[in-house]
C-alpha cells in the first residue's frame, strides 16, 4: 500500500479531490503544479511553468494542461477535466479514475470499459521539461491515444484571452511539433517517443475558470489556445512518453523515463515526504544557489532563507547544500553591508532582523556539524556582521545605550508579520521588538563563545559585556507582571497582545530569562497560542483576533497575522518545550507532530502549506508549500532523534 494513495471513491468526488494539489519542481525555478485529478484550479497551475528571464522575473505558464482521449472502435473517452462557468466541469474525465498514488511520481490509473491506462508524470531536474508516460495495461482491441495540449504562454500573475496576436504557426520536429505564441517567449517542443500524427486544428477553449482565484477575490477565468492534437496507436503493455520542453529532445532518449524515476526518493513515510518537499525549495540559477520561500508564488526572501536553511539541509544530513547556499547568501550580505548593488536574487535583505537570523543560521551549523568547521567557514563573516551592527551601520537597527536594539516599523512592515494594506503595515511593530532583541542577545553570546574559543578574547569580552547589559534591559523592558513578554515597546507604547514572538527567547541557546521566567512564557504560549497546526499569531483573548484567512485580498491582509496558525513557529515552540522538559517533553512533541503528518494527504500532498486558520477545523491556506514550515518540522524530527537514540 502506497503512503500517498487515493482510491476511486475520493478521486471521483471533486469536493475531496480538487482541494488536493501536487507540486513538482526542477530545482532551477520551473515547476509543475495542479490538482490530483489534473484540473487546474489556480492561475499558477500548469504542466510546464518556467521562468523567462528575458521577459521579467516571474514564472510563466507555457503548457497549461494536456487532455488525453482513449479511442476504441470509434468511441472516444476524454480523460481531461476543466471547470467552466456555472460550476460546469468538462469533459469529466475524473469519473474514469480508478486510483492515484504518488510514492515516486504522480501516477493515475484510468479504467474505460476494458481499457486500463496508467499515466505517470515526471519533472526533469535542472531542465525545463515535463515527461508524461502512458502505459496501456489492459485492452482487448485496437486502441488509439489522442493528446490535446492547452497552451497559455503568459505570466502566472496574468491571464490569456482569445486574441489575433497569438501565433498559430508551428513546425514539425522529431515525432512532434514546436510552436511559440508570442515574441520573447521560448519555443515549446511537444514530442512523443513514437511516430504519431499531429492534426492541426487550432481553436480557443473559452471561459475556463479557476475557483481558487475566485475564492481569493481575483479575476478567475481565461481562454486557452489548443493548436490541434496528436494521435498515436498504443498496444497492450506498450508505453508512450510525451515530452513538453523548451528544447528539442532526441525522442529515442525518452525511453530513459524509468531511470529518472529510480533516482527519486520514495514518499513512503512522513519524513521522506518532507525531505522531498525540502529538495523542491532548492533553486540553482547560473552559479548561485537559493532557497525559495514557497510555491507557487514566492521568490527567495532573506529572512525565510536563513530560518529555513538548517532544517532543509543540515537536519537531513545534506551539509554541502547548506554550504553552497550560504556561499551565495554571504555575497548578498557583503553587498548589503557595503551598500553596493547586488546581482544576487535574495530579496528583502534590508529588513533589520535578517542579519541576526543569519547569525542564528550559522549557529545551527556550529551545533549540527562542527564548531571548528563553523569558525573556519563563517568566523570572519560573524565578526563582520556583529561589528556592522555594533557600529550602527544598519539603516534601521540602532543599538541603544541600554544594550537593546531599536527599529522603526511605523511606516513599513519590518518583521515577519509583514502584511500591509493601503501601503501601511497592518500590524505596526516598532521600537524594541521582542524577537529582534532575543536574536540580538543570542547572537552576542554565541559569537562571543565561538570566537573566544579560538583565542579572540578581546572581542569576546566586549560582546559578553554588551550581552550582560542587553540581558538585564531585556527583562526590565519586556517581562510583565503576568509572566509573559510584551511584543514590542516604543517609548510609552507597550503592546500587551499575546503573540508567538516571545517563544524565541525560550527556544534559543542563549536567553536572558532564567528557568522560571522561561517556563512562565512557555506556559502562556501553550495555553493561548498552541494549535495542532502551529502557533497562533495572536491569542483569542487579545483584541482584534481574526483566525480565518479567507475572502478578498484586503480581508486576508487583515487576518494574516491576527490569529492564523503558523507551523514554522511550532518548530521553535517544540525546541523550547524539549529544552524545558527534556525527555518528559518528547511525548507531547510526538503527539503534536501527528497534526502535520495528517497534512501529507491534504492540500499540497507531501508538503505543508503556508498557514492555517487559527480555529477548528484549522484549514490550510496560502501558498501550497512553504519552506519555513517544512524546514522547522524537519528540524524538530532531528531534535527528537537526539532524544530517541
Write a short abstract of this structure.
With 645 residues, the chain is of the alpha+beta class.
Please explain how this structure is put together.
The chain is α+β, with helices and mostly antiparallel strands. The protein contains 17 helices and 35 strands. A hairpin with a 5-residue loop joins β23 and β24 (about 405). The longest helix is centred in the C-terminal third of the chain and has 22 residues, at about 455-480. The protein starts with a strand and ends with a helix.
Features:
645 residues, alpha+beta, nine-stranded antiparallel beta sheet, eight-stranded antiparallel beta sheet, 35 strands, 32% helix
Architecture blueprint of SSEs:
Elements: E1 5-7, H1 8-11, H2 14-17, E2 21-25, E3 31-35, E4 46-51, E5 59-72, E6 75-78, E7 82-84, E8 88-90, E9 97-101, E10 107-112, E11 115-123, E12 129-138, E13 143-155, E14 170-173, E15 176-179, E16 188-192, E17 197-209, H3 211-215, E18 221-234, E19 239-245, H4 257-262, H5 270-281, E20 282-285, E21 288-291, E22 294-295, H6 302-312, H7 319-337, H8 354-368, H9 371-390, E23 398-399, E24 405-406, E25 420-421, E26 424-425, E27 432-433, H10 434-452, H11 457-478, E28 488-490, E29 493-494, H12 503-507, H13 515-528, E30 530-531, E31 534-536, H14 553-559, E32 565-566, H15 567-581, H16 586-597, E33 611-612, E34 620-621, E35 625-626, H17 627-644
Helix pairs in contact: 5-17, 6-7, 6-8, 6-17, 8-9, 8-10, 9-10, 10-11, 13-15, 15-17
Ends apart, CA distance between termini: 29 Å
Total beta strands? 35
Structural class by SSE content: alpha+beta
For the residues shown, what is the average pLDDT? 94
C-alpha geometry: elongated
SS summary, helix count: 17
| Rg result | 26 Å
Largest sheet: 9 strands, antiparallel
What low-confidence regions span 5 or more consecutive residues with pLDDT below 50? none
Spatial strand order of the main sheet: 1-9-10-11-12-19-16-15-14
Assign a percent range to the helix content.
Answer: 25-40%
**What proportion of the residues form beta strands (DSSP E)?**
25-35%
